[in-house]
Each structure stands twice: as C-alpha cells, then as structure tokens.
Write the structure tokens for this entry.
Amino acid sequence: MRETALLAWYAEAHRRLPWRTEVSAYRTLVSELMCQQTRVETVLPYFERFMDAFPTVEALADAPTEAVLTRWAGLGYYSRARNLQRAAQAVVAGGGFPRTVAGLRALPGVGPYTAGAIASIVFGADEPVVDGNVERVLSRWYAQELPTVRWSWERARAVLAPGRAGEWNQALMELGARVCTPRAPRCGGCPVATGCLGRDSPERYPGVKLKKAVPRRRAVAACVLDDGRVLLVRRPEGGRLGGLWELPGAELDDHVQPDANALVAALRARLGLAAVVGAPLGTVAHTFSHLHLDTTVFAASLQSKPGSVASDALRWVHPAQADDLPLSTLARKTLGVCPGWAAR
Ligand code: SF4
C-alpha cells in the first residue's frame, strides 16, 4: 500500500535536518521561510547561525532588524527575513503560535504552504502542503500534465495520511527532493512506483511551464576608499534588498551607458555626493530571480572631505566590520573588485 510504503521509506531514509531532530513551531517557521526558493544544503549553515543568534521567537521579535538582516545576508529574498521578524513579533504579541492554518496564515509572510507545514508537522493537524516537490510527485502519480494550483492542493488533501499528516507531508517532499527529481528520477528505487501512472515517462510531468524572459540591465557603482575604509550606502526600506548595505551607485535606464558620467550623475542625484570618478575596476554579473544585472564598478573619490559625509544611510566601513553589516551577495561581489577588499 502506498501510504505504508512511503512512510516506511521516509522513516528509514530521511535526512537528519536540524529542524527535524528538534521540532518546534518557531524552528519550522524559520526553516520553511529559509528553504523557499533555496536549496536545503545552502540553508543549513544559515539556519544554525540564525538559531545561535535568535534561539527563541521572543529573541527574534526583540532583535534589531539590522541584526536579523545580517544573519540572513547571502540567502537572498530579503523580504522573507523582514516578514519572519514581523511574524515573530505577531506571535509574541498574540501570546504564542496559532495552531490552525487560518491563524497561521494571518502571520506576515506565511502562505498556505508554510501554514500547512507548521499545522501538520508541529501541531499534528490533517493539513496538506504543496511545494514544487509535492506538485511534481503528484503530477507523476496521476500522469497529470500542467497541474493547476487547485488540482495540486485537492490531490494533496485527498492522498493525506490521516493522523500522520506531518510525516506524510515531509515524506512527499523528501521523495520529490531525493528520488522523484525533476531530471532522471530514480523510479527503480522508488518506494511508491507501484501504481504510479507516470512511471513510464516521468519527465513528461508536470510539463513545461513557459518562463518569462529575464531582462538584462546595467548599473554603476563607486569604490570610494579612505584610509582603508570604503564608503557604503544603505538601500531604502521596502524595495529590493531594502535595508541592506552596498557600494553607492545606481541601476541605469536602458539607453544610458554605464560610464563615469552616469556614475557622477547618479551619486549627485541619489546621495548628494560630488565625486570624481576614475577608471573602471571591473564589471560584476549577478542574477536575481527576475533580472540579470551587470554592475560596472569605478574607482572614485569625493570632492568634499570624507568626514563631511554624514548620514544614517552612508557609512565608512573597514573590511573587518563587514561581517557585522547586512550585505547582499551582489554587494559582496562588487566589493570584491575594490582594491584592498579583494584581498580579504
Ligand atoms: S515511480 Fe518514478 S515518477 Fe513515480 S513517484 Fe516514483 S520516482 Fe516519481
């Protein structure tokens, strides 16, 4: 029987992940938000460091946001970190975690998948989850091409193992991650191959969803050095990478060349800085989910004295202080072409 076979396989074969060996609503919330759009192997060291810094939901709720972003830096999708802290604050204000999907979904950043995961894994509720792995496994079991979101959730609920939904959901996800993989699924070693309608041509399912073309844009950034320190700017709250620190500069409109003139104009317009821009130091390519960005970094100096740069959003930073600031992966890449920083 499929249920028995899958649960037995999971009990034997599942990865011993830190949020599985010690289960709580808080740890499940953190791990699920970290794992969105991110591989488990990438998440592991971030999860451990995050738990060291914020071992309880109360600690996270009370922490300065910049400290939260610093521990998240490198994982990307920074709105997840902000929502996670807001969710922690809502939990503390409400006297504890809600136990139902509806209550959990009212928390910032918690969608149907995360709510279903916490409700089933932590509170034992008979609630399904659907992520990319679950969708793929179900579409193959039922030979369903191009499954809709609604179809996937209805199927996930229909196949749920009553009373063991938490294990069942994790088993489905684990099967998708380890056996029923997007390419070259290992049907020969699959515990639920019997009765799988897609087994003869698994890669046909769930079918190809057309992806939008990702645009390519250009940006310029300044490497301004003073006495071994570099000038960084904090991005405005709310937008992409909001609240994170980076080299001063700007993304350019398509018709603008990424040259010294563009950088001089951007520094003046965005930050009120008068700068002399020198030679290009290099161009850094970085891909976000929705955008390829090529950032050309220039050596630059300020016409005003470095000490006169005073703003909450501007800071002179020594390389040794970099680990205490939330820097995006792109910021670290661009810093990598600054003389002095590159050798760190
Ligand atoms: S038999 Fe193959 S396609 Fe079917 S669930 Fe197992 S791994 Fe996936």
